[in-house]
Every structure is written in C-alpha cells, then in structure tokens.
Amino acid sequence: MSGINRLDIKQLRILQLLLQERNLSKVANLMGLTQQAISEQLKKLRNTFDDEMFIRTSNGVIPTQVAENMEHKLNQILSDIDNLISPENFIPSSLTGVLQISTSDYALVTIFPILIKIINTEAPNLKVVIRDFESDNLHQLMVTGELDLVITFPEFIPDNYPNMLLFEEHHVCVTGVNSKFRGKEYDLKEIADMPQVIVSPSRANLKGSHDAWFERKGFKRNVIMSVPSFSSAPDIIEASNTIGFLPSRLLPHPKVVPVQISENPPSFNVIAAWHPRSQNNPLHKWLLSILNDNFVK
User: Fold this and answer.
1) CA distance 155 to 133
2) In the chain, what percentage of residues exceed pLDDT 70?
3) Residue 113 clears pLDDT 90, i.e. is over it
4) 3-class state of residue 124 by DSSP
C-alpha cells in the first residue's frame, strides 16, 4: 500500500492544525487528544511524506518547506470533504441538524429576530443553539466545529478568519431617566470623571471598549461597575445614578435618556465570522445571504 493510502481524515485535520497552531499541546487540546497521540500521528505523517514535516523549537514546532507548501491544498481538500455531505442543489427546507451560533445579547435584540424568523420559515427542521460569547475559547470552539457562526466585533476575531461586515454602529452616552446628570451638556473631562457602568459580555473586568479613546484624549474613565449583558445595563444605570455608553440600536429605552457630550466616541463594526474551512459550505453561504440581504447596506 502506498504511503498516501495510509492517510486518514483525522491525520489531515491534525496536519492542518499543526500548520495553524505550530504547537503540539495546543493541537492536542483542540482535538481532545493527548499530546502523545498527536506525536504518534505526526510520526505517521513523517513516514507517509518521507519528510520531517515539523521541527521542534523552544516555543513549539515550525513546519518544513514540504509541510508549508501543503497548507493551501490541504485547506481546500478538507473544505471539499466538509462539503461532501451537502447536496449539490442546496435546498434549505431539507436541512436538519443543529446550527450553533455565538453572540452577545446585543445581537439577540438587533439581528436574531430577523435571522431566526427566516431560518424557521425556510428551514423549519433546522434547530438553532445560541451560545454566550466566549472570546477566550472562540478559536477552540470554531476549530473543533462546536460553533458554526459568530456575530460580534472585529477585535475578538482572529485575523485569518473570513468575515462579513453587517453594519456600522455607534455608542450613545446615557443616564437614568431621573438622574442628576440628565438635561445638560458635558465636555469629555466631565464625562470621564462621572461614575460609569460598562458592559463586558466576554470578560468580567472593569475595562471598557472606549478606555483607549478616552486615554488618547488625555482622560481616565471613572468606571465603577461592569455588567455582563447589554439588556441589564439600562436598569443598573438608572438604579445607580451613573452614566454608560450603549449601542444606538438598543435605544430608545424607558429607563435611560441620552446625555449630550461635546464629542462622541468612534463608531465600530458589527460582523459575522466563521472558520476558514466553512468558506464554501452551502449552509454558510445560505446564512450569509440572509444576513447580507437584511443587514448589509
């Protein structure tokens, strides 16, 4: 039996991940295997291709020229394999299984009502699981196929992941409807000094998305509280007599009112992203066509 006939799909997945991660222990974690098992598969790959394939370094491994030259073709082969289960004439109504999407509650309010309505109409047998956004585990979840699509902001997505810009958004400074801060205009120094609530859906800390912007202006924000969801922020801001910055598409809200400020923070993008191997998957193309038709201007 020739060397190439001894290859299996698992070995190709491991080879793909080694080219991406360049670290055996990381690949073992992503595949749910032991590092010894990855080493054994790497040994088989070396025998098959009659090449060292990866050279160990103090920080992991680096691919040989032979391995590096395979990457583009390997990604295409695995993409084609993933698409084998898809019918040539894609029919959404025939879809079954589970679609796994990760996002914050911001997208649940602004995007998902439209998306889910179309999915339920065109693919009634397709089940949907919406997961909390986990920026620290995002890459692992995407690589292992536990996530099909992510709707989030560009800074959370690896540079090599394909993505689609859905729309541009901006934050509005708000305070409670009965707050002492309402009804006046403030400069940025005054805003920075006010007690602020931030929304941090992926990490429990007191760091907000506009900290760097304030710092570039020469000010440090007075952040006193962090909440994990956009939906809870208006109630907290209203109850604590603070201010906060909320995406414009979540407003108006009965608990908060806009605060006039001398300069608004920069706008930001909302994107959909997916793993590179799904680039040509008909299901993904269908989902992206829905997003494109309903959100992309």
Assistant:
1) 13
2) 95
3) yes
4) coil
Statement to judge: residues 198 and 162 lie in one domain: no
Domain that holds residue 134: 92-167+270-295
Annotate 108-123 with DSSP letters as a single string: HHHTHHHHHHHHHHH-
* Strands, sheet with 127-132, edge to edge from the N-terminal-most edge strand: 127-132, 98-103, 149-152, 268-273, 163-169
Measure the CA–CA gap between 80 and 67, rounded to whole angstroms. 20
Q: Which of residues 85, 106, 124 is at a domain's end?
A: 85
Which residues, including other chains, have CB under 8 Å from residue 104's CB and lie 6 or more apart? Answer: 132, 133, 152, 201, 202, 229, 230
Confidence of residue 91 (pLDDT cuts 50, 70, 90): confident
Whether residues 81 and 98 share a domain: the answer is: no
Rounded to whole angstroms, the Cα distance separating 31 from 21 reads: 12
Q: Tell me, what amino acid is at 229?
A: S
What letter would DSSP give residue 6?
G
User: Reduced to 3 states, what is the DSSP secondary structure of residue 149?
Assistant: strand
At 109, list the tokens: 């309010």
Looking up residue 205, the CATH number of its domain turns out to be 3.40.190.10
CB 38 within 8 A of CB 14: yes
For residue 64, report the phi and psi dihedrals to the nearest 5 degrees.
Answer: -75, 170
pLDDT tens per residue, range 35-86: 999 999 999 999 999 999 999 998 899 999 999 999 888 887 877 776 665 5
Angle at 207 between CA 141 and CA 113, to 5 degrees: 50
In whole angstroms, what separates CA 143 from the centre of its chain?
12
In angstroms, what CA-CA distances link 139 with 15, 30, 84, 104?
17, 9, 24, 16
Length of the chain: 297
4 Cβ contact partners less than 8 Å away, ≥ 6 residues apart: 48
**Domains identified in the chain, total number:** 3
**pLDDT surpassing 50 at residue 92:** yes
Considering 63, 85, 107, which residue would you say is the last residue of a domain?
85
